[in-house]
């Protein structure tokens, strides 16, 4: 049995913050990605299409326009930023 706290809780929080979307545009020069997404529960935001910054520009090499993704967006320094991105399966 694992101890409550630390890693176990973190995984649950991250999983619940994952949102689904479709990549509409990748702008590697600006370090941004345009995503058409469903509701972002962790940000209390309805579904829409919007531009996000990315935490790490290397993330943009993992996706292209038309890809279905799961991602986490958070407010980082006042800007909406994708902090994790995975291809949808």
What secondary-structure arrangement, pairings included, does this model have?
Elements: H1 6-17, E1 19-27, E2 32-37, E3 48-54, E4 68-76, E5 79-87
Structural features, described:
The protein is 13% helix and 45% strand. The chain has one helix and five strands, in the order αβββββ. A hairpin with a 2-residue loop joins β4 (68-76) and β5 (79-87). It is globular. It has a five-stranded mixed beta barrel with strand order 1-2-3-5-4.
State the main characteristics.
disordered N terminus; mainly beta; 89 residues
In short:
The protein is mainly β and 89 residues long.
Q: Per DSSP, what share of the residues sits in E-state strands of 2 or more residues? A: 35-45%
Give the rounded overall mean pLDDT: 86
Q: Please summarize the sheet with the most strands.
A: 5 strands, mixed, barrel
Number of helices: 1
| Structure summary, number of beta strands | 5
